[in-house]
Amino acid sequence: SAGVYTVFAPTDDAVNSLPQDMVYSIDSNPEQSKPLLQYHIIPRRINLNSLSNDETSSTLLQGKTIRFNVYSSVTPDCKQLVTASGAPIGDALATMGSVQVIPVTQVLYQPTGNLMNIVDASPILKELSQAVKSARLSWLLSGIFAF
């Protein structure tokens, strides 16, 4: 539909780091990727320089939002880091008419379930997941932190 959109486009490295079973699932059933893609699009253009910490924006995936965080003085070389749903984002790559494209260094995942579900599903938190389970502390990350 007509409107202004921002697309958070995962870099090639981000896509290549997806778990093989997820890639296979998406390749074998492209319709399954629709919610994932909808979560990467917001129906407005954003100004990276005017984002506020903990600002949220609705995505095209109904009922789901992307949360932006702004971190200052991250390192001597990095005066500011902006993330979208935890993924560092770069400068606007391109603006074509009503579509703005911004690269992200990770594929964005919409929060579902509870914190333990998110840790279990994350390809970069496997060690944490195993440690929490080994210590029998899964209950701490389940239930009370539901999304």
TrEMBL record:
GO biological process, one term: cell adhesion
SMART domains linked: FAS1
MF term (GO), any: cell adhesion molecule binding
InterPro entries: Adhesion/Biosynth-related, FAS1_dom_sf, FAS1_domain
Gene Ontology cellular-component terms listed: extracellular matrix; extracellular space
FAS1 domain: residues covered: 1-106
The organism's place on the tree of life at top rank: Eukaryota
Protein name: Transforming growth factor-beta-induced protein ig-h3
Native source species: Trichonephila clavata (Joro spider)
